[in-house]
Amino acid sequence: VQLQAFGGGLVQAGGSLRLSCAVSGNPSKVSTMSWYRQAPGQQRELVADVTSGGSTNYADSVKGRFTISRDNAKNTLYLQMNSLKPEDTAVYYCNCDWMILRDWGDQVGRSWGQGTLVTVSS
Q1: Which of 29, 82, 112, 116 is the one with CA 20 to 30 A from 22?
Q2: Tell me: the pLDDT tens digits for 55-82?
Q3: CA torsion angle 85 49 94 12 (round to 10)
Q4: Rounded CA gap, 30 and 17, in Å?
Q5: What gap in Å lies between CA 49 and CA 59, rounded to an integer?
Q6: Looking at residue 25, what DSSP letter applies?
Q7: CB neighbours (10 Å) of residue 96?
Q8: Which residues on adjacent β-strands are paired with residue 121?
Q9: Could you read off the pLDDT of 72-111 as tens digits, one per residue?
Q10: Alpha-carbon distance 20 to 51, whole Å?
Q11: How many whole angstroms from its chain centre is CA 81?
Q12: Measured between alpha carbons, how far is 11 from 119 in angstroms, rounded to an integer?
């Protein structure tokens, strides 16, 4: 199962961007999908996640500004980012927990996307 993230770019403070993350490899089930970010010199941190049922969770720093959503039919994850701040500058990564059902044994795993750079200028 592979993930590909895209949609990053350069934006001025106060602007908006929408990130997307496409899941390929035909998993039988995709459970929790998440966005993380890593700024230069800092640890990777959770930005937001969404369960298969649609329950969401956000980091305090992005609440009210970012919206995570998913299209289960397309196995695609989104992150709408509004009112961007320079401190949102980071590489954004998506990941998901997945399962592949097989007669001879199920396979479970977690995959990460390659990251997409978001730069917010002041």
Answers
A1: 82
A2: 999 999 999 999 999 999 999 999 999 9
A3: -10
A4: 25
A5: 9
A6: S
A7: 25
A8: 12
A9: 999 999 999 999 999 999 999 999 999 999 899 999 999 9
A10: 16
A11: 11
A12: 6
